[in-house]
Amino acid sequence: MPQMKLTKTAIDALPTPSKDIVYWDAGCPGFGIKVTPLNVGHRLLPTKRSRPKRSFVGV
C-alpha cells in the first residue's frame, strides 16, 4: 500500500484508480484514505481493535 503525507492538496491530486486503493499517512500511523473508482474517499482511523474504523469523507 502506498504511503505519503496526506494533506488536502495531496488528496485532491490523487488520481482516480481502476480499483480500490488505500493511501496511508506517513506521519500518523494507522491513518489512511481509501480511494475508489467512483472517486469516493473513506478515512481509515486507528482504533484499539485490530482493524481501522472507516468513516466516509465525500465525493
Describe the structure concisely:
The chain is mainly beta.
Topology of helices and strands:
Elements: E1 3-4, H1 8-12, E2 21-25, E3 32-35, E4 41-45, E5 53-58
Parallel strand pairs: 1-2
Antiparallel strand pairs: 2-3, 3-4, 4-5
List keywords for this structure.
mainly beta; 5-stranded mixed beta sheet; 59 residues
Distance between the termini: 22 Å
Strand content: 35-45%
Number of helices: 1
Overall geometry comes to: globular
Low-confidence stretches: none
Number of strands: 5
Estimate nothing, just give the exact number of structural domains: 1
> What's the helix-strand series?
EHEEEE
Mean pLDDT: 76
Q: Helix amount, in percent?
A: under 10%
Polypeptide structure, described:
The chain has 59 residues and is mainly beta. The chain has one domain. It is built from 1 helix and 5 strands. It is globular. The model has no long low-confidence stretch (mean pLDDT 76).
